Amino acid sequence: MIKGINQHLEKDFESRVLNPIEYWLWKFRYITLLAVFFCGFASIALFIMGTLEILTPVKEIILTAPGIITNHEMISNEDILKDFIGALDLYLIAVFFLIFSFGLYELIISKIDIARDSADDVDHPLLQITSLDELKSKIIKVIIIILIVAFFKNVISMKMVVVSDALMLALAILALCIGSYFLTKGH
User: 85 or 113: whose pLDDT is higher?
Assistant: First the structure.
């Protein structure tokens, strides 16, 4: 009889106290939508910034090439390359935010059904995230590519003063190659 009363009290406690708490805890996961949306907005903003970063030197090239503006200072090839590579860097960071946004949504909110729709002939493995480790791995790969592009952008404007500068550059490139090899070794 006491055992039956204890079971009844446990069920009553569970239904009156724990079930509502669990219900609201489960619904609280939707707060993640803030991060999903704002990472998506950041991605859009970075894509726009990258595009503007490309359009600026293109405009300069168009205006100075045929002599449309004669008193305009000619932009250097180094500056043009740095702007283009800077745009690439912004695009990669935008992809980082996009992957993070998709990953958070798929891990915490729900799977994105339209991404798995059979009508879409294209497989999107980069945006399909099934675990936190997979999200982390994809983000790390994008970060490494961003660092490589940033390194390349800095190398363009690097001035070799002494022989050790060239040696350090060669060692840095070797380190990037080794890292890239290990990054893609699993494929």
Answer: 85
For 82-124, the DSSP string reads HHHHHHHHHHHHHHHHHHHHHHHIIIII---GGGG-TT--S--
Name the residue among 144, 142, 127, 135 with its Cα closest to residue 180: 144
**Per-residue H/E/C for 61-88:** HHHHCCCCCCCCCCCCHHHHHHHHHHHH
Q: What is the pLDDT of residues 36-75, one digit of tens each?
A: 999 999 999 999 999 999 998 888 888 776 666 666 677 7
Which one, of 180, 175, 151, 155, lies nearest residue 165 by Cα?
155
pTM of the model: 0.72
Give the H/E segment covering residue 177.
helix 163-184
